[in-house]
Design a protein that fits this description.
The complex is a heterodimer of chains A (114) and B (116). Chain A is an all-beta fold and 114 residues long. In chain A, 0% of the residues lie in helices and 53% in strands. In chain A, a hairpin with a 4-residue loop joins strand 8 and strand 9. Chain B has 116 residues and is an all-beta fold. Chain B contains no helices and eleven strands. Classes of the chains: A mainly beta (114), B mainly beta (116). At the A-B interface, strand 5, strand 6, strand 10 and strand 11 of A face strand 9 and strand 10 of B.
């Protein structure tokens, strides 16, 4: 079975500071991993994905994520947070041998404080 | 804009009403999805259509009835819903739904449903 855990419901960070949003996964096989962002009254927007290769993946809006197989983690990071980064962030996983069904976490609300 | 639109954006309905949610994608994709988003819960995949055929039905109650008349349109027909069905219903699409594909899913803005 596939599952994703986002251990923090809420993350607060000061503007200009680095941010991390945590994600761990559980799959029976090799994973494809995704991050999505949801702004108020909007649908989910794709940020980045890990398929294979370099463990550090760069995505939209200056975000990046690091795939760590030994820790089964895929934490989202940004070196310097902006107030406009405040949103709900979702981690998702699917197995490489499974159909294109995504399994999502519960989401983490990021608030960047000016 | 992601190329996926949903109407209505907000819906209030009584438990005896019948209503429908509509999703339309302008991306030429062949797979479409319905998700339910409830507070502090993972997004729940409800239905998947690939090339207009339903390929996934994740134990969704029969009071939710999907319809995919063509590859660009997806409906979710609602009848005799319960208050716990109140949620944000998200539609998504992707180029394909196969083992070999790993394309991104593109989401619509959602329909906020309140069942009284």
């Amino acid at each position: 079975a596939q599952s994703v855990a986002q251990p923090e419901d809420q993350v607060n960070v000061a503007e200009g500071n680095p941010l991390t949003v945590k994600c761990t996964y559980s799959v029976s096989g090799n994973p494809y991993l995704f991050w999505y962002v949801q702004y108020p009254n909007r649908g989910l927007q794709f940020l980045l994905k890990y398929i294979t290769g370099d463990n550090l993946v760069k995505g939209s809006y200056g975000f990046e994520a690091e795939f760590n197989k030994s820790q089964t983690s895929f934490h989202l990071k940004k070196p310097s947070a902006l107030v406009s980064d405040s949103a709900l962030y979702f981690c998702a996983v699917r197995v490489q041998t499974g159909a294109n069904n995504l399994f999502f976490g519960t989401g983490t609300r990021l608030t960047v404080i000016p | 804009e992601t190329g996926v639109t949903q109407t209505p954006r907000h819906l209030v309905m009584g438990m005896t009403n019948k209503k429908s949610l509509k999703c339309e994608q302008h991306l030429g994709h062949n797979a479409m999805y319905w998700y339910k988003q409830s507070a502090k819960k993972p997004l729940e995949l409800m239905f998947v259509y690939s090339l207009e055929e339903r390929v996934e039905n994740n134990s969704v109650p029969s009071r939710f009835s999907p319809e995919c008349p063509n590859s660009s349109h997806l409906f979710l027909h609602l009848h005799t819903l319960q208050p716990e069905d109140s949620a944000l219903y998200l539609c998504a699409s992707s180029p394909r739904w196969t083992v070999a594909s790993v394309e991104t899913q593109y989401f619509g803005p959602g329909t906020r449903l309140l069942v009284l």
